[in-house]
Known about the structure:
The complex is a heterotrimer of chains A (about 775), B (about 150) and C (about 160). Chain A is of the alpha+beta class and about 775 residues long.
Amino acid sequence: MSETEISTIGRSVLRKEDHRFITGNGRFTDDINLPGQTYAVFVRSPLPHAEVRAVDTSEAEAAAGVVAVLTGADLAQDELGGLPCGWMITSKDGSEMKQPLHPVMAVDKVNYLGEPVAIVIAETLLEARNAAETVQVDYRELDAVVGADKAQSALQIHAEAPANTCYEWELGEREATEAAFEQASHITSLDLHNNRLIPNAIEPRAAIADYQPGTEELTLYTTSQNPHLARLILAAFVQIAPEHKLRVVSPDVGGGFGSKIMVYSEETATAWACMRIGRPVKWCADRSEAFLADAHGRDHFSHVELALDDEGTFLGLRVKTIANMGAYLSSFASSVPTYLYGTLLAGQYKTPAIYVEVDAVFTNTAPVDAYRGAGRPEASFLIERITTMAAREMDIDPAELRRRNFIQPEDFPYQTPVALEYDTGNYGVSLDKALEMSGYAEFSARQQQSVSSGKLRGIGISCYIEACGIAPSQVAGSLGAGVGLWESGEIRVNPTGNVTVLTGSHSHGQGHETTFAQLVAARFGIPIDDVQVVHGDTARLDFGMGTYGSRSIAVGGSALSVAADKIITKGCKIAAHLMETEAENIDFDQGEFKVSSSNLSKTFQEVAFAAYVPHDYPLDELEPGLTEKAFYDPANFTYPAGCHICEVEIDPDTGCVEIVNFTAVDDFGRIINPMIVEGQVHGGLAQGIGQALLENCVYDDTGQLLTGSYMDYCMPRADDLPSFNVDLTETPCTHNPLGVKGCGEAGAIGSPPAVINAITHAIGIPHMDMPATAEKVWRAIQEKRGA
Amino acid sequence: MELFEELEIALAREEVWAMLVDAEILSQCITGCETVERISETEYTLLLGTSIGPVRARFTGTIELTDLNPPESYTMLGSGKGGVVGFAKGSAKIRLQDRTVAGKTGTLLSCTLAVSVGGKLAQIGSRLVDVAARKLTTDFLSRFVALAEK
Amino acid sequence: MSIDITLTVNGREINTEVSPETTLVQLLREHLLLTGTHVGCDTSQCGACTVHLDGRAVKSCTVLAVQADGSEVTTIEGIAVAGGLHPMQAAFHQCHGLQCGFCTAGMIMSAIDLVTREDDLDEATIRKGLAGNICRCTGYHNIVKAVQMAAGQMEGRGHE
């Protein structure tokens, strides 16, 4: 297909951004070098919990090439603020969550392994590294609080958080749920740990800061999913520099998955140090630092109970969760196990009564925050696990039990008992399609075949729902959000008729430069090559909220759609003037402004030119120029949903699990670029399957990180995964102009329970915590055989 | 990590004990030990170069002898800082018993070792600590026996 | 101490001085400003730094620059053929075999090596052959498709 083809919505247009990456011309933060730059290395705590009695930097300061050695005390002297958390959660007793100071670098106490204590800046990276080794920190070791499940009875970490508890939150109707359980003829219950993960974007975090004393402008190039939010936090809370003198640039960013939403110590200290020494400072994490200090994900301990009647109708769901926050509250940590988790517990089902309690706790581990799916994978795992367990206990086919409890198409809009109102969906259609694609009906024949060759075989279903594009801002604000949740879009039609699109969304792999260009090109009827998408620079666009929570197309795309409407409205006025008629008589179609019922027309380019060279132009009623912007604040979340089916074959002698088929049928509403959407699904599935089979962050009892490199933290590799069987259904979102929902996280949300449902089916056990490693599976098989 | 080793030495308990509190002897028995300095009756500082898996480090450490019960038993508490690579801590409980060795009065030396590591050592090398500690211990014991029976 | 080395990088002869601990990837990225090759880990696991050394894929974070003395090095910047992309580059584009683009250079360099070495490239062989390169974005599905497509197009493949 030609990439200049006009109407491209719904087509798999190849990506515009590819060329620079496949030829080695991408520009990532660490690829940027500035004249006179220095290199920063952090001195990190080798202990998870200790008092800092003294930091002796004298030897480091005297070391070869060292420019400066700065500590937490220096930061405190400059009166820099701590790193804030942007969502205030209110406990069930009405009290506000406990938010201990999160210092940019530790001053008198370290609370997690790898917490920065000092920054060493030198002429070369090697000199900075060597000098960092000589910084002497006198620690008094304290017992470390490691597991979230034991945190509430352990040594208190922060003075302001008794029992290491950040908040005790609840949602839903406790009494109605108790009543539902009293009427139940069957109750299924489960205790589980949703395993802790380390995001591992392949580009480590990095920053390079540049300060111009003449203009007092500070520029920070950094690996951020949301440069404007980073600027806002650095200006308003940390107070490094005022917002109008701070520029944050996110150039090409090598994956984020949530871990680059946050404003971290290292980027902040790099920017501050640059101003202190008056020279550019560059810092790039090595992988070991990423393991220690990137915000981790998941880590919930949950008890869940499902009440059913004898027909298998869901009557009530009761959940108690302890969520690990780590040592400090990271940027959006508090919202993950609450508004992104508890609100999703209805799943795709008409469960009439739901009650959830969440205790968030502090531990001496790295901060935990959003990682692909953020709260929704934890919710989905719990619902889809307990549903399958209930089906097996009641001897009902898991697909059938789900079908009996689905919210039906005629029920929309559907108000759940946990705050959300789903606008639309058709869950039966996704389930049916997935059952057919996966050959569900013929499973037992395949199982027989496996058994005859000495293998075990199982199949697992997961019907997930998720919520994208948190909104609207007023509601989020009333629930504690510290920021707005709109997005901005600006369209500049240049005098020659090509178009510059500026979006507040950020692409770090998602392909916005293509999808957003498709969107605008199709609207204007111009070639996609005439559209250039710009993002990731606070100096080039007004403001943006960035990319997370699968919000880009639903919120950022919608903003562009509104801006495009404004361009067309103005264009019609200009065209009407040029053709001596009224704007109501102009139809805009396929790049042309036409006078209805005549053969008069002006091209998009002609109108653009007239706007900038307004010699024949209605200057008394219209400003020159053809640039429009929109700030779009959605009316609701969007609700992507779908059905994932996993089929596994297990070698009982080794416990090795092979995924022999993985089917995903997702409903993302309208699709702009199916190729990119499928790519997002593939990546999400890999991370979800990674969580289910391989990935696990392990701290030992003393708080030392045992899975701190790719030798011990098992990343999914090409030979761990199958090719995926992916398809889509489509019920358009009812409340945004594009009918789109978002697709970035669904794969990671739907897949883990499908995998565990398949493995437990194969072995014939009720549950297995993730990751289902070969050893764990082998032991379960042995135990089952012994029993 | 804990490990237990024992071996026979053809030397009387009192003589073995004297060697066990001799800094010079100890330094010769610890692989990679560059210097040992006695700073009190029961405390020593030492400099040790070693590698655990991919992590290579020079540790500055202290050894303290506690629970001294001559000529029967003591506990050696060691801790070392390896700069950016992290730290290691360990204790070795040494116990001496009379044992007839080659027809003469000799000694049975038993050693219970516990080791924990932190920082980069734990992050990258934790899987290899067992092996390294076992090697350090067996090296120590075999050199000690060699010196004792020389 | 500096050591004088001479090597060919992407067809260009380079004579330079490096310190003994300089890795090949440092030489490429920092001295020669060939920033298309990336560093994604510190244990030689992720493969983002893969380049060709005398025609074979190596992880340039674990090769010393001095080891490349006298050798021929090819990086992602050096594989395009006159007037167009290398078939592997084109296939990654055609098959949407990349998202964030960070692992891509290493992935393409490993894939070219794999196609050059292996005759019979079924899906399992490709997946095994790329197990030394980690991609966090694509789930590998489209990378496998891209390698299959390029294998069909690369001329003169087979054992060297």
